[in-house]
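Justification of computing resources. Each target in the renewal requires a structure prediction run like the one illustrated here; the chain below, 350 residues long, is used simply to show the kind of job we budget for.
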Amino acid sequence: KLDYSLPYSMTPNEYKAYEFQKIKQDNWTQRSKSETIDRRSPLMKSINVGSEAFDKIFGTNTINIVPQGSAELIFGINTSKINNPNISERLRKTTTFDFQEKITMNVTGSIGDKMKLGVQYNTEATFDFENKTKLEYNGKEDEIIKKIEAGNVSLPLTGSLITGSQSLFGLKTEMQFGKLYMTTVLSQQKGESSVIEVKGGAQQEEYELQIDKYDANKHFFLSQHFRNKYEEALSTLPAVNSDITITKIEVWVTNKSSNYENTRNIVAFMDLGEKVVHNKVPEFRASNTSFNVPFNEINGLYNSVINTYAARDIKNVIKALAPLSSRDSFRVRITKSRECTQAHRTGIHP
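Resulting structure tokens:
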């Protein structure tokens, strides 16, 4: 069976136009195929290094790096406005720039057949040691240098008397001199081991805490009276021997958000409610010496302040308290935009 079609004739001009369209169509088809192949190819192609020294050091002359991952960048502007007459006009409108980045990256590569590269990085990682970087060189059987590792390394030991370390960051080498094998590690340790002892269903753990490592500005005595009675009140633990029961307390902290619905301007005094005051103003000395517990009228500071009506205006508070603040050892602090903290953010030890 033979395929045939009806013959037809073309003039020279028609034949030139036919050949031109055919060549153009074949060209577009060829370019489309090459672009499809390029899309399927890796982001970074293998690199060949034409050097004999490179081939002897790394085994082959090929460099191959394969990056994988994702990057997400978020840009935005947050603007909030609160029409609260208790807030100054400048603080009613706040504008902040919002920038967030989420990067997850995994890079694997090889230089020749002796050196390997591995990088794992995630901006959402909980701990720093979850981001790993490692460069590894593996020598041949007849070479002195068996292995060189740089980055996240470990030093496992087979014995039970001395345990090895796992969370290390530094340099590790393994070498062989005849029948002598030597492993060297130069690194910093990013983790530590701990032993927890359980007795009678309870968990016990001993730890040491240096005095300069304790939480700063997080634990306070409400008054000097509580400091003086602290050891005495805790001498009969678990029962607390205290002559005062606190039923209500408010803690005001600096407002770091754009919500000004529950904010106040505050003037703080050092000797308010204290029996033994630190200032040297005679009228501030304790008048009710028969009482040992702290309260407002135990000295003259509270009455002097509440009778200074001009101090209730934040614009005039500095001028109104100037006669008092000029006295020796008078301590006062003025802060703006404080908010009453929520119950779950603070706690009180009775």
